[in-house]
Amino acid sequence: MPGTVLLLAASPMGKGCLVDAASVLPVLAAVTPEVLSGTATANVVELADPLEPQAVLTRLRAAATAPGPLTVYLAGQLQLDRKQRLVHLALARTTPATVRYTAFPWHWIVEELRLRAPGSTTLFVDLHADAEVWQQLAGQPPALGPGVSVYGRVAPPVGGVRRAVAVPAYMKALATILRSGQRPEPAVLHEQVLARTGGYGDLVLSYDATGAAPVGATFGAPATAAPVPAATARPRPQGAVPPVPVGRPELPPEPVTPAAGEAAKAGEVGVDPHDAISAAVGAGRHGEADALAARREQEALREFGDASEQVLHWREVRADLAMFAGDPAGSCAAWMGVARARLAAGRPAQDPVVEAAVDRAHHQWSLITDTVRAHQLGVEFVELRDRVPGRRAGAVEHARQHLAELRRQPA
């Protein structure tokens, strides 16, 4: 039975663009339909920077109702409808203010694939999240249903005023492998792509609906655990069980000392301070957000002690806030401090929470452009990476090689 392939690349026009999603389509289009689908014959549908959500829905529905296996290659960026708090795939005309009307709701994808035969649908995704989506995901992959196999990554937002438009590195590496004519099993192909791209700090997705491969969503390493990014962790619904212990403390219920400006709301009884921090980050008030987190850290320090999970939680929050503010050196140093503190408290080097902290430090270290600062942190980081190699093959070698390159560069 012939297969169906949907190639979908979408990102906004203008300054709201996080990733040049359509740049991967020429590489994917050079792959034969049979290799793209893994079947003897296949029909290919391509959507490049679509304008209208209904146009995407029509093509997706046609692909989803076609008999035989369906493979979707999806590159783009995720944005949040601020009113309904729903994740959307941004389209060409999408702006932060028009997400609800111009972007493609993620739950539409779920709905269209829901009735397909389990195990007959495979998605390869290379997605970039804006700050609000990254906070809402909180380490959990976007849902697609138990019958759909999903492989790929969600990249975190990159801070800084002069933000460069990213490239869909995961999807380009995947397409390059497929252009050789090889079509390994999806889980094997996914591992090969990760070996080429690194992706430290990304939310890596690996779910095989057939049960033939490990299941998970991890940061920079394909494993079964799903550590939660601390800066965006939010209270789980009643009855929900986290996939691994993540050390999210119960926050003290008493009010905190209000910060200047709108952040004073964080001091109101019953208001989650994470909401005020998220609002400050979304408005670009990074200093205010860090001040709020620092205040909570000091309160936790006085009440629970230096090595407590409550204190470490707020240090993790500040590490992510440094990332949002475009300070990879500060974020790297903070994540290293968190990892060392957990190790000193008796956590093993193989603990997913320790590994996640080191992986995030690794990713932030690789983004530092100040050679001197990168070298200073690199000496400490390589020592930590040796102690916590993580689950990604080649992580230790990458760290050593990068430090050697920094040493060769002039100050």
Arithmetic mean of pLDDT: 80
Order of helices and strands: EHHEHEEHEHEHEHHEEHHHHHHH
For the biggest sheet, the summary is: 9 strands, mixed
Tally of separate helices? 15
The residue fraction in helices comes out at 40-55%
Strand proportion: 5-15%
Radius of gyration: 21 Å
Per the principal axes of the C-alpha atoms, what is the gross shape? globular
**Structural class estimated from helices and strands:** alpha/beta
Low-confidence stretches: 219-270
Distance between the termini: 61 Å
For this entry, give a set of tags.
411 residues, globular, nine-stranded mixed sheet, 15 helices, alpha/beta
Question: What can you tell me about this protein's structure?
Answer:
The chain has 411 residues and is an alpha/beta fold. Helix content is 42%, strand content 14%. The protein has 15 helices and nine strands. It has helices spanning 25-29, 33-37, 53-65, 99-102, 106-113, 131-137, 169-179, 186-197, 273-282, 286-304, 309-324, 328-344, 352-365, 371-387, 395-408; strands spanning 3-10, 42-48, 70-81, 86-89, 104-105, 121-129, 148-155, 203-207, 216-219. Strands 1, 2, 3, 4, 5, 6, 7, 8 and 9 form a nine-stranded mixed β-sheet that branches. Strand 3 and strand 4 form a beta hairpin. It is globular. Residues 219-270 have low confidence and may be disordered.
